[in-house]
Amino acid sequence: MNYDQHEIESQPGPVASQDWFVANLLRVLKVVPKEKLICALGNYGYDWTLSIPNPRTISIASRRFSIRRLQVADAWQRASDSDADLSLDPDTSIPTSSTSMRT
Questions:
Q1: Which of 6, 8, 10, 49 is nearest to 24 (CA)?
Q2: Strands 44-51 and 64-71
Q3: Residue 80 near residue 72 (C-beta atoms within 8 A)
Q4: Pairing status of strand 86-88 against strand 95-97
Q5: How big is the CA angle at 85 (ends 18 and 22), to the nearest 5 degrees?
Q6: Domain ranges across the chain
Q7: Mean pLDDT over each residue of the chain, to the nearest integer
Q8: What is the three-class DSSP state of 44?
Q9: 3-state class of 18 per DSSP?
Q10: Which of 15, 20, 83, 84 is most deeply buried (CB count within 10 A of its CB)?
Q11: Residue 65 backbone dihedrals phi, psi, to 5 degrees
């Protein structure tokens, strides 16, 4: 399972960024011979929604994330429906949106 770098119980981030994916695979290859290795990929995404409380009443540390796991087709459909400006994040090699997508 070479995914879940970030997941429902973590902070927002990619399911498996390129650097993390390679490092994780190399770590496993030190223990498991490549002839016996099967690498599973995550084909899903997350809808991370951040609500920031009023700064006059609540500290920034109390930010809350609403997280919804999406099938990959649903993630692409949401991006299309919201006219999101998609690009490849240079740090993670993951498709991302530079604009907020509405639900």
A1: 6
A2: antiparallel
A3: no
A4: antiparallel
A5: 0
A6: 18-97
A7: 78
A8: strand
A9: helix
A10: 15
A11: -110, 135
H or E element that contains 95: strand 95-97
Beta pairing class for 86-88 and 44-51: unpaired
Q: Note whether 72 and 45 are within 8 A (CB).
A: yes
pLDDT winner (highest mean) among 25-29, 80-84, 91-95: 25-29
Longest dimension (CA), the chain: 58
| Percentage of residues of the chain with pLDDT beyond 70 | 78
pLDDT for 64 equals 59
CB atoms within 10 A of CB 75: 20
pLDDT of residue 33: 95
Dist CA 76 CA 74 (whole Å):
5
Q: Do 16 and 5 contact (CB within 8 A), yes or no?
A: yes
Is pLDDT of 65 > 80?
Answer: no
